[in-house]
Write a structure and sequence with these properties.
The protein has helices at residues 25-38, 52-64, 89-96, 110-116, 121-137, 149-155, 157-170, 186-199, 215-224, 246-256, 264-267, 270-280, 302-310, 337-346, 355-370, 379-388, 445-457, 509-529, and strands at residues 6-9, 42-46, 71-77, 101-107, 141-147, 174-179, 203-208, 229-232, 298-299, 328-329, 397-411, 417-429, 434-442, 468-476, 487-495, 498-506. By secondary structure, the chain is of the alpha/beta class. The strands form four sheets. It has an eight-stranded parallel beta barrel, surrounded by ten helices. A three-stranded antiparallel beta sheet has the order 11-12-13, with helices on one face. Helix 13 (302-310) packs across helix 14. It is elongated, with a radius of gyration of 29 Å. The model has no long low-confidence stretch (mean pLDDT 84).
Length: 536
Amino acid sequence: MTSKIELYDTTLRDGTQMEGISLSVKDKLRIAERLDEMGVHYIEGGWPGSNPKDVEFFEKAKTQLKLRKAKLTAFGSTRKAGGTADGDPNLKALLDAETSVVTIVGKAHDKHVTKILETSLEENLAMLMDSIRYLKANGRTVFLDAEHFFDGYDSDPEYALQCLKTAANAGADCVVLCDTNGGAVTSHVVEIVKRVKSEVACVVGIHAHNGADVAVANSLAAIEVGATHVQGAANGYGDMCGNANMFSIIANLKLKLGHDVISDEEMERLTETSLFVSEIANMPPNPRQPYVGAGAFTHKAGLHVAAVVKEPWSYQHVDPAQVGNDTRILVSELGGRRNITAKLSEQGIDLDLTNDEVKDLVERVKVMESKGFQYEGAEASFELLVRRSRPEYEPPFELVDFWVVERRHHERGESGREMQSEAMVKVRVGESGEIVQTAADGNGPVNALDAAVRRALVQHYPGIDSIHLVDYKVRIIDSAAGTGASVRVLIESAVGEHTWTTVGSSTDIIEASWLALSDSLEYWMYKYGGPPQSGK
C-alpha cells in the first residue's frame, strides 16, 4: 500500500519535556540527522520564541543541517489574547526560524480558554484565525496542534469542532487532535476522529500522550478511521508518561497495517536509531520496548527456545531483522539444553560439545544461578563458563591473593577526611606460572583492585590499559538478609567498538566485583589480547 500518511516527530521539542532529558544544540542537530535517515517526514526542532537554545538551534540548522527527506518544523503558539498577529513576538520568531513548515498550538477546550487563558471563547477563535492567516500570508505551511482537543470535545463538542473549522477556514494545512493529558480511550478517539473527518475540510492528524498507556493504540486507531498525519517521539519520550512512541507507530503502520510510510532499508534503522537517541539523551534504553528493545525478541523458557530454533515465527510476531533487531536466547535455570546450544550458536562459539557436556553445562548454569550469578545479560561470563569447562582451556592469569585497605586521607573542606583505598594483589600469569605482586591506590576498593591487577598484568598484556569501564551495576539479591545479603555485580567494558558484560556474585561486594572484573579482563585477553608477552 502506497502511504499518504505523514510522520511528524516531536522528540526535539515535546520529547525534551521528559524528566531527566536536556539536549544541547549539537545533540539536537545529531538527533535530527538520524531521524531524517530513518525516514520521518517532519522534524519539530523546538520553540524558537521560548528560549535562546532553540533560537540557536534554528540558526545553526540553516547552514549545518542537511536533511535528505524530512522538513524541519518550528513550533510556537497563536498570538496572545488582545494582541495582533503582525505584532506578536512569538509569531515573528517562527518566521525568523525560516522553516517552510510551522506548527502552532491553540486551545480547543472551552474551560482552558476561560480559566487558563482568561479570555473569551470568541477571542480564542480570533487568535486561531489571525495567527494562521498571518503565517499563511508569509508563505508557510501551517499545522495547528489543537491542544486538549479530546477533553475539550467532552466538555463542549461544538466549540471544540468550531476551533478546528476556524483553523481550516483560515488556511491551516492540517489540524492535529491532541490528547494532551493522555486520558482518552481508543473507542472514544475513533468516534471523535470519525466526526472530525466528516466535518472539517483539511488534513486531520493525531497527537497522543500516554497517560492511560494507549497512546500508540490511539494513534493507530485514528489513522484507521481517516487521520493521515501522526505525531510521536523517539522511545516515547515526553512530559508525564510520555508521547506515543514513534518507533512503535512506524513499525505497526508498515508491518501490521500495510502503510509503506518508510522504506524497508529505513525500517532496518529503527533499533539503531532508538539506541542512538537514548545514548545522546543519556537515558537508559528500555529493554522491553516493543520492536526495538533488547528484550523484544528474547527467549528464556526452554519450550519457547526449542520452538524458535525450529521456526522463528512460532514465538515472534515479526522478523526482528525487519526493524534492525535480533533474536536473543537467554541462558538461565529455566532453560534446557536447547538454550545452551542456541546461545553458543548465537555468540559464534564454535565448540563441538557432546550431549553429556551440554547437559553438564545446563547443570553448571543452574548451580551458579542458585549462587546469585545471572548470565542473561552477561554473555562474556557465559562464554568463559563454557570454555572453562573444556580440559584444554588455560586461564591467562589467576588471582592468588589480594588485600584491600581503606584509610582516611587528606582534608576535603567541611565534609571532613576523604576515604582512600589501597589494594595489594598477587597474580600468577599464564603457563609460566610467574607470580607478580603489586599494589595501587584508588578512589574506592574496586577501583584500587582494578588498578593493582592491571599493573600486575600490563607487562604481559600491554593492551590491557585500553580497556575502559562503561557501566558498573550492583544489585542486592536477597534484601531480607540485610547487610549480609548476597550481591550481584555486572560490569560492562569496552575497547573501541567492542563491548562485553561480565557478572560476579558473593556476599562480599568486593569479591563479587573482583569476579566480574577478572572475567572482563580474561575475556579481553582471550578474544583480543593475544598470547602473553615476556615480563620485563
